[in-house]
Design brief:
Number of domains: 2
Number of strands: 10
Bound molecules: 5'-O-[(R)-(carboxyoxy)(hydroxy)phosphoryl]adenosine, zinc ion
CATH architecture of the largest domain: 2-Layer Sandwich
Length: 337
């Protein structure tokens, strides 16, 4: 039998970060190691699934060893091995899931399969253990843009989502169009630092309309604007584009919090590392007198501490997963009605 307060090893390999972390039963992050594959994919301008899977194979065991060493735990002390089972790239997921099951079997400890999106929702809990529920979470990553009413761990209601591109995908596509490099979000943020966010009046799609968002028109507007004005600086285009995305996300999040009776607001996912989004949302929440729970930037982008945190909760409340549970590239978040 494992002690419910035992540390949990998390493994995350859903996309292009190979990550392992040990989180204590008290939600303390004892180690969090992330090996980025940026160098592997940069030449291609985006993630190449085949290369990602192979890189995970090479990197995962050294990353796991390092996470265990830094946390100063013995495998026998671990309460579980938790790994992302989806959504994500199937080849990448399989590496993490297979390794986690093998380690769990070898160490005679439970295996817990975690939904990557649920992991992102747990990131804010690592930095803010005393959240007053319910909160509205804006989850903005490379593959997803969701507004969720989180009534507590494990209880989620869908409030709104993107009708086309995810926010991170829009950042990545515009960065690729401007040839700013990969990953696109940080590249746009860097370019925007010296730009004028009012240089282009890019559209705020559906700004006064419900809780869903749409970014494909904005991306097209950027392409048209640059073709019409070839002398425009990348920094002005990046700053105006970033402002349009952030404006819409902040307005929708505040509206979602209002209509769902939220007691606070949380940010999650890779785009939550964006400084302009963090700053405008901080101002908007202060004005609305709503507490804002911001995860640290390192906990916003893909990491394994959030997977270990979600796995710890899951083990305690739902029990271990079957070793028959496989990777599911299209896994969805389970919502209550
Ligand atoms: O959550 P994440 O690390 O991986 C997924 O689950 O998708 O999110 C990655 C996404 C990418 O689209 C990346 O460009 C974006 O998050 N991103 C950012 C920033 N850092 C990462 N977008 C805007 N500003 C950033 N600083
Ligand atoms: Zn993610």
């Amino acid at each position: 039998m494992t002690d419910p307060g035992s540390p949990v090893l998390g493994i995350e390999t859903s996309c292009d970060e190979t990550a392992a972390a040990v989180v204590g039963g008290d939600a303390s992050v004892r180690s969090s190691v992330v090996a980025s594959q940026i160098e592997v994919h940069a030449a291609y301008g985006g993630v190449v699934p085949e290369l990602a899977g192979r890189a995970h194979l090479e990197l995962l065991m050294p990353v796991v060893d390092e996470a265990i060493r830094r946390a100063d735990v013995r495998p026998a002390d671990l309460g579980a091995v938790a790994a992302t089972v989806g959504p994500g790239l199937v080849g990448s997921l399989l590496v993490g899931v297979s390794a986690a099951k093998a380690l769990a079997l070898t160490w005679r400890t439970p295996f817990v399969g975690v939904n990557h999106l649920e992991g992102h929702l747990f990131a804010a809990l690592l930095d803010h253990p005393g959240i007053d529920w319910p909160v509205t979470v804006l989850l903005v990553s490379g593959g997803h843009t969701l507004l969720v009413s989180m009534q507590g761990p494990g209880r989620y209601r869908l409030l709104g989502q993107t009708l086309d591109d995810a926010a991170g995908e829009a950042f990545d596509k515009v960065a690729r169009f401007l040839e700013l490099g990969y990953p696109g979000g940080p590249a746009i943020e860097r370019a925007a630092e010296t730009g004028d966010p009012t240089a282009f009046a890019f559209p705020r799609a559906m700004a006064s309309d419900g809780l869903d968002v749409s970014f494909s028109g904005l991306k097209t507007a950027v392409v048209h604007a640059v073709r019409k004005q070839p002398g425009a600086t990348d920094s002005d285009v990046a700053a105006s584009f970033q402002e349009a995305v952030v404006d819409v996300l902040v307005a929708k999040t505040l509206r979602a919090a209002h209509v769902s009776g939220a007691r606070g607001v949380c940010l999650a996912g890779g785009v939550a590392a964006n400084g302009r989004l963090r700053s405008l949302l901080t101002d908007a929440c202060a004005q609305a007198a709503l507490p804002l729970y911001l995860p640290s930037r390192a906990m916003c982008t893909d990491n394994a501490a959030m997977i270990a945190a979600a796995g710890t909760w899951q083990l305690e409340h739902l029990g271990p997963s079957s070793l028959g549970l496989g990777a599911d590239p299209n896994l969805r978040l389970a919502f209550v009605a």
